[in-house]
Amino acid sequence: MTATSPENKTLYAYVDGKYVPKDEASISIYDHGFLYGDGIFEAIRAYDGNVFKLREHIDRLYESAKSIKIDIPFSREEFSRLVIDVLRKNGLTNSYIRIVISRGRGRMGVDPRNCTKPTIVIMVEPREPLFGGNVKGISAIVASMRRTPSWSLDPRIKTLNYLNNIMAKIEAIEAGVEEAIMLNEEGCVAETSTENIFIVKSGTVITPHPSQGLLRGITRDAVINVAKELGYTVEERPMTVHELYNADEVFVTGTAAELVPIVKISGRKIGEEKPGPIFSRILGRFKESIKKSTEGTAVN
Ligand code: PMP
C-alpha cells in the first residue's frame, strides 16, 4: 500500500536533504542505525496546524544527540523549521511526526569513526492514537523485564535501542493485555513500554521522578503542568508496585498514546475499573491546552 495523506496524495519523507516518496525512501544496509541501533529519534504530533511542544522535542533530540556524541548539522531553529517544512510539503496539519537520526553510513564495526555524517530522516503521516485513543481504559501487567539503569544506557536518551521496551511489550502481548509496566533496577515503577505513568491517591497526583530510570516525556511534563493548574498536588518521587496496585486511578501519557487510563494491572482492578474523575479533568484541560499551543510553530 502506498502511504498517502487523507486526500490520497503521496506522502514524502525527508531523507538527508531530499524529499522522497515515503514508500520509496530507503537507507543503506551499512547505516549504523540499522547495524547497531546507533542513533536517536523523536516522536511529535501536530494538531490543527500547530506542532505540539516542538521546542521541547527539539531540545530533547539535541540532548540525546549530545549524549551519544552525534553532531546534528543544523541549529535547533533550523531543525524546527525543517520539521514544519516537511509538514507543509505534505499538506498535513494533523500529523504524527517521526525524526530519526543515526550515526550514518559506515563500514562494519562499531567504531563510530566509520561513519562520516549522520543520516537524518523525517517522516510525517496521520496516525490514530495508540490504543485507539481508548479513554475507557486498558489493562496492563507489571513486566519482569526491567528498564535499563541510568548508569548504563540512560532511558532519558531516546535511542534507537528499544529492545528493552520491546521485550516488555512482548510480555504484555503474551499475557493478553495492552501494555507492560516496567520497573527500574530497584524494583520501583519506572514507566510503560512507550509511555510515562501516573497514579492518583487520595487526590494527589504521583509520577516517578525522571531519575527513576525513565524517558522524561514531553506529554508527562505537560500533564504535570495541567494537574498543577487544576490545583492538584503533584509528587515526583519513587513509586512502589504496592502503591500502583492500590492507587485510586492510574493513567499513562505519551505522544503516540496521548492520555489513557489503566484500569487493571496484573489481575488487580484499579479503583472502580473505569476512568477516574481526576484523570477526566486532566484530560479535558490537556485537550484545551493543545488548542492554545500555537507557540509560533504553526504549519499554515
Ligand atoms: N517513555 C518511553 C520509553 C517512550 O518511548 C515515550 C514515547 N516517546 C514516552 C515515555 C513518552 O514520551 P513523550 O510524552 O515525549 O512522547
Topology:
Blueprint lengths: L11 E4 L2 E4 L10 H5 L2 E9 L2 E2 L2 H15 L7 H15 L4 E8 L16 E7 L12 E5 L20 H13 L3 E5 L5 E4 L3 E6 L2 E4 L10 H12 L4 E3 L4 H5 L3 E6 L3 E8 L2 E2 L7 H16 L8
Parallel strand pairs: 7-8, 7-14, 11-12
Antiparallel strand pairs: 1-2, 1-6, 3-4, 3-5, 5-6, 8-9, 10-11, 10-13, 13-14, 14-15
The structure holds 4'-deoxy-4'-aminopyridoxal-5'-phosphate.
The site of 4'-deoxy-4'-aminopyridoxal-5'-phosphate has 14 residues, from helix 5 and strand 13.
What does this structure look like?
The chain has 300 residues and is α+β, with helices and mostly antiparallel strands. It has two domains: 117 residues, D-amino Acid Aminotransferase, Chain A, domain 1 (2-Layer Sandwich); 160 residues, Alpha-Beta Barrel (D-amino Acid Aminotransferase, Chain A, domain 2). Helices cover 27% and strands 26% of the residues. The protein has seven helices and 15 strands. Strands 7, 8, 9, 10, 11, 12, 13, 14 and 15 form a nine-stranded mixed sheet that branches. Helix 5 crosses helix 7. The two termini are 28 Å apart. The mean pLDDT is 95. The structure holds 4'-deoxy-4'-aminopyridoxal-5'-phosphate (PMP). The site of 4'-deoxy-4'-aminopyridoxal-5'-phosphate has 14 residues, from helix 5 and strand 13.
Provide the list of bound ligands, each named once. Answer: 4'-deoxy-4'-aminopyridoxal-5'-phosphate
Return Rg in Å. 19 Å
Text of the CATH class of the largest domain: Alpha Beta
Q: Beta fraction of the residues?
A: 25-35%
Tell the overall outline.
Answer: globular
Main pleated sheet = 9 strands, mixed
Helical/strand content category: alpha+beta
pLDDT < 50 stretches:
none
Q: Span from first to last CA?
A: 28 Å
